[in-house]
Design a protein that fits this description.
This protein is α/β, with parallel strands linked by helices and 106 residues long. It contains 2 helices and 5 strands, in the order E-H-E-H-E-E-E. Helices cover 27% and strands 27% of the residues.
Amino acid sequence: MFYREADVILFLYDITNQKSFEELKKYWIHQVLNVSEKLLMWVVGTKYDMIDNDEVSLVKREEIEEFAKEFNLHISYTSSKDNIGITVKYNTNNTINLIKIINLIN
């Protein structure tokens, strides 16, 4: 498993796709917790640029907050389209040494 020696886990889901959030809740959180409960963990909604789009169905914020509270997760959002939310810094070996998660909600 690629996350066995991880210090931080980012659980990403598409805010416009309820199924992606359900998979996270039903499968991925339990896979990670079976390995370690001492990780820093974030649930990160992708496609934040769609948050004000009335034409798409969004995962309910209350559902995300309840899930995050249950598993002690931080919440954040990101948009690759608008280039917001997560900044990754690489070291000389091209491995990640810092992930900065920008909290877009207050």
